[in-house]
């Protein structure tokens, strides 16, 4: 499900309310910042290369790290539900976290939408609001006050059902669940992977302009690119564990 998006068991696993350090297979980040300070490239910090970027690119990227936008689009109640949702689907269970919700909020507040939508779906801004309501309704159906206060297992189960398009009742009787999932995850993933901390986690070297790449052969990398510390391919590993 969603919690396995960023590497399945290669990211910290959680059992109930407690973290199991023995289950963590990624090394601690030694240089730079990654979500929760784990990553496959522990000695890599993409921001160390900022001096090689053009001025405009450098300003835009550094702002993502230095300035967390305020919540202006979502109501406090919506933000509570959606923050928990973003944490679950991106497996961000402790600090440091990439401020995904704040980044999505800014995009919606500014009206910077994708320019397309499903014919039977509302505007993306309305979809996000209804998803927040739908998550709270689903949590109430399981006996919780709301989604933000739902026990960890219940919240993950709701997220799992959402990812499979299986939520029903209330909002979900008029909002296509699977398509709503597609809409919100498109935004969540886009914002998460636009952040330098995510680049550190996956070893992405960031902008190469104006320096460019010179070592273009198979298996070659530039001296300033990250060196992977965990040589286990997550794709077959995830398939073997049935976590797709």
Draw up the topology in text:
Elements (H helix, E strand, L loop, with lengths): L13 E2 L2 E2 L35 H12 L9 H14 L10 H10 L14 H18 L10 H12 L13 H16 L3 H7 L31 H7 L4
Antiparallel strand pairs: 1-2
Summarize the structure.
The protein has helices spanning 55-66, 76-89, 100-109, 124-141, 152-163, 177-192, 196-202, 234-240, and strands spanning 14-15, 18-19.
SS element count, helices: 8
How confident overall, as mean pLDDT? 87
Gyration radius (Cα, Å) is: 19 Å
Ends distance:
7 Å
Apparent shape: globular
- The ordered H/E elements are EEHHHHHHHH
* Main sheet overview: 2 strands, antiparallel
β-sheet strand percentage: under 5%
Strand tally, please? 2
Helix content: 25-40%
Class by alpha and beta content: mainly alpha
Unreliable sequence segments: 1-23
Strand order of the largest sheet: 1-2
Can you describe this structure?
It is a single chain. This protein starts with 13 loop residues before the first strand and ends with a helix. Helix 3 packs across helix 6. The chain is built from eight helices and two strands. 39% of the residues lie in helices and 2% in strands. The chain is globular and about 55 Å long. The N terminus is likely disordered. A two-stranded antiparallel sheet has the order 1-2. By secondary structure, it is mainly α.
């Amino acid at each position: 499900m969603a919690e396995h998006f960023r590497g399945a068991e290669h990211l910290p696993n959680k059992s109930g309310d407690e973290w199991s350090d023995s289950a963590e297979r990624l090394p601690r980040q030694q240089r730079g910042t990654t979500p929760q300070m784990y990553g496959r490239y522990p000695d890599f910090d993409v921001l160390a290369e900022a001096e090689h970027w053009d001025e405009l690119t450098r300003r835009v990227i550094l702002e993502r790290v230095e300035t967390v936008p305020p919540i202006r689009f979502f109501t406090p109640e919506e933000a509570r539900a959606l923050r928990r949702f973003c944490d679950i689907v991106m497996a961000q269970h402790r600090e440091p976290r990439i401020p995904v919700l704040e980044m999505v909020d800014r995009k919606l507040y500014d009206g910077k939408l994708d320019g397309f939508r499903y014919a039977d779906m509302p505007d993306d801004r309305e979809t996000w609001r209804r998803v927040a309501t739908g998550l709270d309704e689903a949590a109430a159906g399981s006996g919780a006050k709301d989604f933000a206060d739902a026990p960890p297992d219940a919240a993950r189960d709701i997220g799992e059902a959402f990812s499979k398009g299986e939520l029903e009742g209330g909002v979900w009787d008029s909002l296509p669940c699977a398509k709503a999932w597609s809409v919100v995850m498109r935004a969540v993933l886009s914002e998460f992977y636009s952040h330098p901390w995510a680049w550190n986690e996956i070893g992405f070297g960031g902008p190469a302009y104006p320096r460019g790449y010179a070592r273009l052969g198979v298996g070659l990398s530039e001296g300033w690119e990250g060196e992977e510390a965990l040589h286990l391919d997550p794709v077959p590993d995830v398939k073997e564990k049935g976590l797709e």
